[in-house]
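seq:
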Amino acid sequence: MTSAMYSHSVPVLKQMLTALKTILGQAAAHASEKSIEPDALLQARLFPDMFPLLKQVQIAADFSRGITARLAGVEVPSFEGQEKTFADLDALLTQTLAFLDSVKADQFEGKESSEIVLRPGTPKEKKLSGQTYLANYGLPQFFFHVTTAYDILRHNGVAIGKRDYMGSY
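struct:
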């Protein structure tokens, strides 16, 4: 039997990252077809105090790696965050998906009650059970950034819809 913690995390993260990878490809094609400078989309925001598309994708990838690593009990892989192009974001998502593929379901066994410590040693340190971390912190954060990336592209005229957002399942 596959761990519920695994089933409710890794396959979901992979589905949404794969869909995000696809819509970023559609955005790059849209920019090319419409003679739009790619940075116009990569630096687009929904509001001035929000992160641009580029950063939304980086954070979504970061959360997916963090969720997976913490629940699997392995070190969280870090990436430089130096992506500047659609091709760079595609490579980031490819590397992230490869990491998600590297973990095994049995690494998630019994992690529901494991202690997850966020921001250790800082005034913002927070301790959560694995179940609370996944359901109430990790997945909501991940979905916020994936959805915001989708919304930025849709707002800027990229012809994507709900099926694109959901990807294959």
